[in-house]
Amino acid sequence: MIYVGVVLMFLGTLLSLLKKDFLLKIHLIGISDTVGSLFIVLNFWEDVSRTILMVVLLLVWGPFVSHVIARMYTEGSS
Question: Which among 3, 6, 39, 74 is most buried, taking Cβ atoms within 10 Å?
Fold first, then answer.
C-alpha cells in the first residue's frame, strides 16, 4: 500500500504540472496528496491509536490547507 500512496502522490503532482489553472492544480494536488498519505499511514498499524489519530488529522488538515491556499489566491487576486 505504500507504493499505491506514492504513485497517487506522484500522479497528482505530474498532472498538476500539465494544467494551467491554479485552482485546478490545488485541487489535484490536495486530493492526491491526502489519499496518498492515507495509504502510506495505513501501513503502520503497530500503534493503532496513533494511526487512527494520524488518519483523522490527515482527513481534516489536508482539505483545510488546500482550501486556505485556494481562498487566499482568490481573495488576493481581486
Answer: 39
User: For 28, how many CA atoms within 13 A lie in the half-sphere containing its CB?
Assistant: 16
* Alpha-helical runs (H) found in 1-78: 2-18, 22-41, 48-76
Distances (CA, A) of 7 to 21, 62, 64: 23, 18, 23
* C-alpha span between 69 and 63 (Å, rounded): 10
Is residue 39 a contact partner of residue 8, using CB atoms and an 8 Å limit? yes
Q: How far apart are CA 19 and CA 14, in angstroms?
A: 9
What's at 29, amino acid-wise? I
Number of CB atoms found within 10 A of residue 29's CB: 19
> 1-40: per-residue pLDDT in tens?
899 999 999 999 999 999 999 999 999 999 999 999 999 9
